[in-house]
Specification:
The structure holds 3 protein chains of 3 kinds. Chain A is an alpha+beta fold. Chain A has helices at 2-8, 19-45, 50-54, 132-139, 143-174, 180-189, 195-208, 215-223, 226-236, 241-249, 254-265, 267-283, 286-291, 300-309, 315-347, and strands at residues 63-65, 67-68, 77-83, 89-98, 101-106, 109-117, 121-123, 125-127. Chain A has 3 domains: 2-45; 63-127, no CATH class; 134-347, MetI-like fold (Orthogonal Bundle). The two termini of chain A are 40 Å apart. Chain B folds into 2 domains: 4-233, P-loop containing nucleotide triphosphate hydrolases (Rossmann fold); 240-349, Nucleic acid-binding proteins (OB fold (Dihydrolipoamide Acetyltransferase, E2P)). Chain B is elongated. In chain B, helix 2 (92-102) packs across helix 3 (107-121), helix 2 packs parallel to helix 4 and helix 3 (107-121) crosses helix 4 (136-149). Chain C has helices at 2-70, 89-94, 109-140, 147-159, 162-173, 178-185, 197-225, 229-237, 242-270, 274-280, 291-300, 307-340; strands at residues 73-74, 84-85. A two-stranded antiparallel sheet of chain C has the order 1-2. In chain C, helix 3 crosses helix 7 (197-225), helix 5 runs parallel beside helix 10 (274-280) and helix 9 (242-270) runs antiparallel to helix 12. The longest helix of chain C has 69 residues, at 2-70. The chains are: A alpha+beta, B alpha+beta, C mainly alpha. Chains in contact: A-B, A-C. At the A-C interface, helix 2, helix 5, helix 6, helix 7 and helix 8 of A face helix 1, helix 3, helix 4, helix 5 and helix 6 of C.
Chain lengths: 350, 361, 341
């Protein structure tokens, strides 16, 4: 405990609390709440039933009213805690409500109807996680399909990105040929060309190729990332050329040099690119929104947006599916966060 | 079995010509050392022979077969690189096997060759380690092993000892010599270290600025350097150079006038009186003499090494003169000493730096 | 020991996963060897470059080049060859205003609304972003224990998808959401955040800062950590006041990174779309309609569809971005030169 407090109260050098120390902790703790709070609230809300979601003020935990099966009634009845005229607390099940009077029964004695003013009763509630929020959209709606589409797009795009980018980076870092600097110039120049500048003609290119309403139409325009080529090339430049000469003396073909020497040695940079690519492609929104118009082809992002845009917004499903959409990225964050942050600090890219 | 012939080989990088018309014949089983200061083109020449680079002009032949346009992989040569260039992601065994696998050799033979090389080089205990886990000396052996298992027509070694510490360098040098003896294979060895060249070579090729200065056995180069550059490069400590003037030739003897150090007579050389020449003296040729004879010089530094004494001196004309005297001598800085010298092994170079030939008659 | 065991297990697992891939790669070798034999090394370089450059050419360079032609055509046909050439009509239409001070008088008032919204957004968001990122970086650069933990805290939202970001905040900012509950508890009137024009705009700014500030804080933190400690020690020896240290040492030395961050946030802010689109849909009314959304809706939404006009607007946006990018490249180059010395 003392270690915790000494950790929390650690200050800059001296013993006096400087205003900067106060500010630092204000910023850190405020940041912690602000950065994680919303996502935590989302996860928390995603386990609530529609009734609990509609409540104001909201509760912290997902409560549901307890139900009980009473003999003589087909449906399960909600349980209430009732204070009767003697001041005793009883647990009764509500049969129906008429105005401000509720007709209730004692589950142990279902024959006798007791009339209770609704002011005298409070619902008896227990904590319960509404997992059907997750199960239903995945099973009954198309979300499993969307999930699969997203996984397919992400995996395929990442594999193709890694392969084509690393091949190009190999050529640009280990061969001397005419036009090499021109190619590099082109790549650097387009580093910052955003999708939004070319969507209109790109759409016609995709349509001409018959890739409209195809997951490949989502995948292909994203894979030739200049960022990836640039990053891998910078890394490959650090591989000594003598190693490649040694492989040539060892009768390795150029393809083997790429595959058996250069690629394994580029593994750290490839891993960074793979992580970036997974996050990018998983999160892509605008382009899939344009290319995919058939529901069964939607990726999770597009599907979620469509659901959230409907007139009758079913928040309980949307919240749960948002959590599902968030999971892979959160996993990446938990396990690879350090890797990514040092990578960004080093390369200054996103 | 493996004879390598270079004819008129030149190489330019853009405007810069790094090799000029190299003609060289390397005989089978010979250990040839390319030596020269950095930037002299020796490594480029080796890469041309290896096939890692192509000459701009000229031809390269192995066993009289023109291989100028043949890829490195198909020349049957093996190379040991300065940085060793071991594949860092493969174990030692995989490093040795990689080239053989690429040649589609049966597994059993690969294993057998690796075992043999490992025994010869004593690297068997760490066959399953990665290069990163080995010491510099061990890596060096693996690099040589990778060349040996290939059973190449010739070995090309690019400064293979330069990354080792001094002690290891000497022992590895001896091992390399023994290896050459045992394999009796053609080896081309590149170094900037003349001691390495002297100890290892059957023949030395001295290169400077992309041209061959002299080719010969180590002793030929030491005893009869063809020019000032070779004279200065071969032999340690470096040869002393003193300016002199030809006085005249009489009775088969030529008189040399040294600036401010009297004159001496040498065997007749093909030069006319009044020619400015350079006299080359090896530090070992100088002896201390008492009395008024010999060349006077002022001692600036004395290094007493026990078995010999190195005396740095400065002559009246300002030229520095280094003497290595065997045994121990009581000499102190500031003192003026006199040296005599053996006039039989003197080297004379003309004003262009070329060795003066003995007089015709 | 265990770490080593883990890596060896991972290595083995990797080898098993890679086995079929390795087999495939080996199958590629013989034909490629033939190619190399007959084509030489230059052909191999072309071979390695080809897939990436092909995709790059078809999906980036070609559309980029064609976009200019596209913006000079009219009608609803998809393919350039079927489209009618109209010269600069689309640009004229974008700039056709009765009175340039009043966007209501413009023919494409929606475009000018988007331009106006985007400009205000850029000014507000960029200044807020750079400010918050700088403060965060300064805080993180202090002598903290568990710095990587705190760094991760601020970085977390960066990885979230824009749709997730939009939905998270839509849920919190809705009428009966968490924020209004907080206000209610504190005794304030609840606000209808996403329905009132100014609040919706503020929400768009705030949410986009929330989502990306960690990334820029990270770049600035890297810059701060590159400042040699000796400088601070020297300043301390000289008895320099902390405020002066900040203005005279920290800020000037951080300037290159700060400029990079500034231009990067500018470039991104000009293109703002995804998270705001999910959060507000451009509404209420057109109060959060930004340029990219305008391009998207004019280019693809059925009732306004006019691809040529969208293309013209996207070229105008591209020009702004090119200027900003050149600016950024200039800064990076200058930094590199300085670093080199």
């Amino acid at each position: 405990m003392s270690r915790v407090s000494s950790f929390l109260l650690r200050r800059r050098g001296g013993t006096r609390w400087d205003w900067t120390d106060v500010f630092t902790w204000f910023w850190l703790i405020g940041g912690f709440i602000l950065m994680f709070g919303p996502a935590a609230w989302l996860v928390n809300s995603s386990f609530k039933t529609p009734a609990a979601l509609a409540e104001f003020p909201p509760t912290l935990l997902p409560y549901v009213t307890e139900l009980v099966q009473v003999d003589g009634y087909d449906n399960a009845l909600p349980l209430y805690e009732v204070t009767d005229e003697n001041g005793d607390a009883r647990v009764l099940a509500e049969v129906r409500r008429i105005g401000i009077v509720a007709q209730m029964v004692d589950p142990a004695n279902p024959q006798e109807i007791i009339k209770v003013s609704i002011q005298d009763r409070t619902p008896r509630r227990t904590v319960s996680f509404a997992t059907e929020n997750y199960v239903e959209p995945l099973v009954a709606n198309d979300f499993l399909r969307y999930l699969w589409n997203s996984v397919f797009v992400t995996v395929m795009a990442t594999i193709i990105t890694l392969l084509t980018n690393s091949m190009a980076a190999f050529a640009l870092s280990k061969y001397q040929f005419r036009g090499r600097s021109t190619v590099m110039m082109l790549i650097v120049a387009t580093l910052m060309v955003p999708l939004s500048v070319i969507i209109v003609p790109l759409y016609s290119v995709i349509s001409a190729m018959g890739l409209f309403n195809s997951l490949w139409g989502v995948i292909l325009p994203t894979v030739a990332t200049p960022t990836g080529v640039f990053m891998l090339r910078q890394y490959m430049l650090t591989i000594p050329d003598e190693l490649i000469d040694a492989a040539r003396m060892d009768k390795a073909s150029e393809w083997q040099i790429y595959w058996r020497i250069v690629l394994p040695l580029t593994a750290p940079a490839l891993a960074v690119l793979a992580i970036f690519s997974v996050v990018w492609r998983w999160n892509d929104f605008l382009w899939p929104l344009i290319v995919l118009s058939r529901r069964e082809l939607y990726t999770l992002q597009v599907g979620l947006n469509t659901y959230a845009g409907e007139l009758n917004v079913q928040w309980h499903f949307i919240l749960a599916m948002t959590v599902v959409t968030m999971i892979p990225v959160v996993l990446v964050f938990i396990f690879l966060q350090r890797f990514i942050t040092t990578g960004i600090a080093g390369a200054g890219l996103k | 079995m493996s004879r390598i012939t270079l004819t008129g080989v030149s190489r330019s990088f853009g405007q810069v010509q790094v090799l000029h018309d190299i003609d060289l014949d390397i005989r089978d089983g010979e250990l040839v050392v390319f030596v020269g200061p950095s930037g002299c083109g020796k490594s480029t020449l080796l890469r041309l022979i290896a096939g890692l680079d192509r000459p701009t002009k000229g031809t390269i032949a192995i066993n009289d077969e023109d291989v100028t346009r043949v890829a490195a992989a198909d020349r049957g040569l093996a190379m040991v690189f300065q940085s060793y260039a071991l594949y860092p992601h493969m174990s030692v065994r995989q490093n040795l096997a990689f080239g053989l696998e690429n040649a589609r050799m049966p597994r059993a033979e690969i294993d057998q060759r690796i075992a043999e090389a490992a025994r010869m080089l004593e690297i068997a205990p760490y066959l399953d380690r990665r290069p990163g886990q080995l010491s510099g000396g061990q890596r060096q052996r693996v690099a040589i092993g990778r060349a040996i298992v290939r059973n190449p027509t010739a070995f090309l070694l690019d400064e293979p000892l330069s990354n080792l510490d001094a002690e290891l360098r000497i022992s590895t040098r001896a091992e390399l010599a023994a290896l050459h003896e045992r394999l009796s294979a053609t080896m081309i060895y590149v170094t900037h270290d003349q001691t390495e060249a002297m100890t290892l070579a059957d023949r030395i090729v001295v290169l400077r600025a992309g041209r061959i200065e002299q080719v010969g056995t180590p002793l030929e180069l030491y005893n009869r350097p063809a020019n000032l550059f070779v004279a200065g490069f071969i032999g340690a400590p470096r040869m002393n150079f003193l300016p002199a003037e030809i006085g005249g030739t009489k009775d088969g003897r030529t008189r040399l006038d040294l600036e401010g150090a009297g004159s001496l007579e040498v065997e007749a050389v093909a030069a006319s009186p009044g020619d400015e020449v350079t006299l080359g003296l090896r530090p070992h040729q100088l002896r201390l003499v008492d009395g008024g004879e010999g060349m006077a010089a002022e001692v600036s530094l004395v290094e007493a090494l026990g078995s010999e004494t190195v005396v740095h001196t400065r002559m009246e004309g300002g030229e520095s003169l280094l003497a290595v005297l065997s045994g121990q001598h009581q000499v102190e800085a500031g003192e003026t000493v006199r040296f005599s010298l053996d006039s039989t092994d003197l080297h004379l170079f003309d004003s262009d730096g070329v060795r003066l030939q003995p007089a015709a008659n | 020991m265990t770490a080593q065991a883990n890596t060896s297990i991972a290595r083995r697992a990797g080898a098993i996963i890679m086995a079929p891939v390795a087999l495939l790669a080996r199958a590629f070798d013989p034909p490629l060897r033939m190619l190399q034999k007959f084509g030489g090394t230059n052909v191999m370089a072309a071979f390695f470059l080809a897939p990436n450059m092909l995709i790059f050419g078809v999906f980036v360079l070609f559309p980029l080049a064609v976009n200019i032609a596209y913006s000079m055509t009219g009608g609803n046909a998809l393919f350039l060859t079927n489209r009618e050439f109209v010269g600069l009509d689309q640009y004229e239409r974008l700039f056709d205003c009765g009175n340039y001070l009043d966007r209501q008088t413009c023919r494409e008032d929606l475009f000018w609304t988007a331009v106006w919204n985007t400009s205000s957004f850029v000014v507000l968001q960029v200044s807020l972003m750079v400010g918050v990122a700088l403060v965060t970086a300064l805080v993180l650069n202090r002598d903290l224990k568990a710095r990587s933990f705190w760094r991760a805290v601020f970085f977390f939202p960066v990885l979230l998808s824009p749709v997730v970001v939009g939905l998270i905040w839509r849920w919190i900012l809705q009428r009966q959401g968490l924020l209004n509950f907080g206000l209610y508890e504190l005794g304030f009137e609840p606000v209808n955040w996403l329905v009132e024009r100014n609040w919706a705009f503020a929400a768009a700014v705030g949410v986009s800062v929330w989502a990306h500030v960690g990334f820029y804080a990270l770049i600035l933190l890297a810059g701060l950590q590159a400042i040699p400690k000796e400088l601070y020690e020297a300043a301390e020896m000289d008895g320099t006041k902390p405020g002066r240290v900040f203005w005279r040492i920290t800020l000037p030395l951080l300037m290159p990174n700060l400029l990079v961050v500034l231009v990067l946030t500018l470039i991104r802010a000009v293109q703002i779309f995804d998270e705001v689109y999910v959060l507000t849909g451009g509404g209420p009314g057109t109060s959060t309609l930004f340029l990219t959304q305008y391009i998207y809706e004019v280019g693809f939404a059925s009732h306004l569809r006019n691809p040529g006009l969208a293309s013209a607007a996207s070229i105008l946006m591209g020009l702004v971005l090119i200027v900003l990018t050149l600016f950024q490249l200039g800064i990076v180059r200058r930094n590199d030169r300085r670093g080199g010395k």
